[in-house]
Design a protein that fits this description.
The structure is a single chain. The protein is elongated and about 90 Å long. Strands 12, 13, 16, 17, 19, 20, 21, 22, 23, 27 and 28 form an eleven-stranded mixed beta sheet that branches. Strands 11, 14, 15, 18, 24, 25, 26 and 29 form an eight-stranded antiparallel beta sheet that branches. The model has no long low-confidence stretch (mean pLDDT 95). It has one helix spanning 81-84, and strands at residues 3-11, 14-23, 26-34, 43-46, 48-51, 61-65, 71-73, 76-79, 89-96, 99-106, 112-116, 129-130, 147-154, 159-162, 165-170, 175-177, 182-192, 202-209, 216-224, 234-236, 239-252, 261-270, 276-285, 294-300, 305-309, 312-317, 320-321, 333-341, 360-370. It has two domains: 3-106, Immunoglobulin-like; 112-370, Jelly Rolls (Sandwich), CATH 2.60.120.200. It has 371 residues and is mainly β.
């Protein structure tokens, strides 16, 4: 085999591995973006291959994996989940003219730790709780003095379960906040696993069909246990006084683009500077509509985050660590699913529904977690 060297780089497309092998007068360079892949999907790794710094004569190129369950489609390796769950690495022999060497690809396996398929006709309230428990449909004695707000607030039981789907609802039921003395004209659904399931690191997935109207936000996110903005899942490696306090895997409105856009956002707080807030994120698109079912996934590692829609890697965040300055430590996180109604013409766009369209639903097929 020829002499070769490897180079590792980081980008929002994953960890990039470049291998170069030289034999006699022929050099072969192979580059690929590594990522862990999503449970339930094949991992597809496109290889970018050049020979002598130019185009490859593919009639002279062969790629053979050391596992027959792995297939090669041109220069795309297709690695099934069953391979990733049984092997720590994959060896691919690349042969081109006089050059022949083995490409080593690390593999990540997953073990399921949480699963709700929303079977039956009722929600498992031992698993899912309303994100705000103090809201009430019953008018308090002083309700006439409450501030009236033309948006929704989290309400108990604002959902149905039917045909294997959780229907998270927006309704025109008035909901009262007796703590803040507010009256909301709409009710919304927000459920979390704070009291039933938390996890440090792993893979978090939900298959969701989003609400079809503007002015609404369908979301799937992670929060660390504890008071918001003061607890963290990770810290910036180059500035560990800044902690990650919210991971938005999915936020979307039908008013964005052609109803095919959503955003991924990370919320950071500087706990040494009065919890100063910064955000990092981007908008992405699906090929069809957000009202179709898609699987939204975040893989959370100590030093990185990976985001997917279905089996497609969209974003990777690097430069993270598990501890902040002065011993500040990260904590476990819990999952949240919700649909919410904002003030008209807010950040999720102008409302384009009427009360006759209510109740409006966003559907959840399942929610899963892995380690």
């Amino acid at each position: 085999m020829g002499s070769f060297f490897n180079k590792t780089e980081y980008s929002n497309n994953g960890i990039g591995y470049t291998s170069v092998a030289v034999e006699e007068d022929v050099s072969l360079k192979i580059f690929y973006n590594w990522h862990p892949g999503v449970p339930g999907y094949d991992l597809k790794l496109p290889l970018e291959i050049t020979a002598n710094n130019g185009e490859v004569d593919f009639e002279k190129l062969t790629l053979v994996a050391d596992d027959e369950r792995v297939t090669v489609d041109g220069t795309i390796l297709i690695i099934p989940e069953c391979v990733r769950n049984t092997k720590k690495e994959l060896k691919v022999t690349a042969s081109y003219a006089a050059v022949k060497y083995e490409l080593i690809i690390p593999l990540k396996s997953w073990e399921r730790t949480f699963n709700d398929e929303f079977e039956g006709e009722t929600l498992n309230t031992d698993v899912w709780k309303s994100h705000r428990s103090h809201m009430t449909y019953d008018p308090p004695a002083d309700a006439d003095n409450y501030e009236v707000i033309d948006r929704a607030q989290i309400a108990p039981n604002c959902y149905t379960v039917k045909d294997g789907k959780l229907n998270m609802l927006i309704t025109d039921d008035v909901i009262y906040d007796p703590i803040n003395k507010q009256k909301y004209l709409y009710s919304e659904c927000c459920l979390d696993t704070r009291d039933s399931f938390t996890q440090k690191y792993g893979c978090f997935s939900a298959r969701i069909s989003c609400a079809k109207f503007g002015g609404l936000n369908t979301a799937f996110w992670l929060l660390p246990l504890g008071k918001y903005s003061t607890k963290y899942t990770n810290f910036k490696s180059d500035n560990p006084k800044i902690g990650l306090s919210e991971i938005d895997i999915l936020e979307t409105s039908a008013a964005w683009g052609n109803g095919n856009r959503f955003c991924i956002t990370e919320h950071y707080y500087d706990y040494t500077d009065n919890y100063a807030h910064t955000m990092e994120g981007e908008y992405y698109e699906v090929e069809d509509k957000m009202t179709d079912f898609h699987t939204f996934t975040c893989v959370w590692f100590e030093d990185s985050l990976y985001y997917y829609v279905d089996d497609k890697l969209l974003r990777a965040t690097f430069g993270l660590q598990s501890d902040g300055v002065e011993g500040e430590a990260m904590t476990e996180a819990y999952m949240i699913i919700d649909v919410s109604c904002y003030l008209d013409n807010s950040w999720v766009g102008k409302r384009n529904f009427t009360k006759s369209d209510l109740p409006i639903s966003a559907q959840v097929d399942w929610v899963r977690a892995y380690k």
